[in-house]
Amino acid sequence: MAGQIKFQNVNYVYHEDSPDAHQALKDINLTLTEGSFTAIIGHTGSGKSTLIQHINALIKPTSGEVSVGDYVITHKTTNKNLRPLRQKVGMVFQFPEKQIFEETVIKDIMFGPLNYGATEAEAKQAALNAMDLVGLPQQYQDQSPIDLSGGQMRRVAIAGVLAMNPSILILDEPTAGLDPRGHADIMALVARLHDEMGITIILVTHQMDDVVQYAEQVVVMSHGEITKQGSPQDIFADLKWVRQMQLTLPTSAEFAEQLKLAGFPLPSRPLTLTDLTNAILTELGANHG
Ligand SMILES: Nc1ncnc2c1ncn2[C@@H]1O[C@H](COP(=O)(O)OP(=O)(O)OP(=O)(O)O)[C@@H](O)[C@H]1O
């Protein structure tokens, strides 16, 4: 059932009918083909999380429709028939500890399959396979997930999703808070799930080097709208100074020099990756908000 993901004229308003109503998505039209790897970028508050949560119907459009294969989600969709969709669309949230509920690693990973009607033996087999896929040694199975490192905890969260055998995987900043090695390991895992298993990947990220390295398609969001869309090569084509830096030297003096040449006001503190991200987004026309 996986198939392509399609947003057609999707609007989403938080707290509709209240004085606090806020339109977070505006007339979104977007098609993601089966097996593709898409990065979604944009300043904080631009609507990235709201957008991705439509794909497994955690959020339903205020108007317009989202289809995933032949599954159609509109404002009328009820929670009744969502199981096949939720099984096929796995979501890994930014903070894995929010996604981990059970007292041991194996129980946590078995939770999804059990919830979807697998027997204990089937769920255990699915969980062990998933641990294998994400590179979690089996001796971790009886450990408490919250005692693991940030990187290992993320593997548990990803394994929990993979145990459901999804064909679409949505990752909302899956490496936030990890050190460079943990970051590289998780991104290598995501790339493998895409390349070797053909899983459709949708990655929300602030890491522009990951966009360039892994994504086939980039969606730039600003103020609830998609402002640019294309291959990383096309999207970043004009950002010669970024390409020269190969997006790897966010704190170097050379990077600061490039930013200065490109006309960005430089802070007096050392530059960070966030400066790089913001500079790129600003140059792509994704204004704050
Ligand atoms: N539950 C909510 N109630 C009201 N407004 C919300 C809610 N969640 C998000 N918003 C608003 O909707 C807009 C889009 O938020 P969203 O979380 O989708 O952005 P984002 O691009 O994912 O941001 P970030 O990078 O910080 O995760 C923002 O203006 C945000 O303040």
UniProtKB/TrEMBL annotation:
It is a peripheral membrane protein. Its EC number is 7.-.-.-. GO terms for molecular function: ATP binding; ATP hydrolysis activity; ATPase-coupled transmembrane transporter activity. Pfam families: ABC_tran (PF00005). SMART domains: AAA. Residues 5-248 form the ABC transporter domain. GO terms for cellular component: ATP-binding cassette (ABC) transporter complex. It is found in: Cell membrane. Coiled coil: none annotated. Keywords: ATP-binding, Cell membrane, Membrane, Nucleotide-binding, Translocase, Transport. InterPro entries: AAA+_ATPase, ABC_transporter-like_ATP-bd, ABC_transporter-like_CS, ABC_transpr_CbiO/EcfA_su, ECF_ABC_transporter_ATP-bd, EcfA2, P-loop_NTPase. The keyword Cell division does not apply. Forms a stable energy-coupling factor (ECF) transporter complex composed of 2 membrane-embedded substrate-binding proteins (S component), 2 ATP-binding proteins (A component) and 2 transmembrane proteins (T component). NCBIfam families: ECF_ATPase_2. ATP-binding (A) component of a common energy-coupling factor (ECF) ABC-transporter complex. Belongs to the ABC transporter superfamily. Energy-coupling factor EcfA family. This is Energy-coupling factor transporter ATP-binding protein EcfA2. It comes from Lentilactobacillus senioris DSM 24302 = JCM 17472. The lineage of its organism: Bacteria, Bacillati, Bacillota, Bacilli, Lactobacillales.
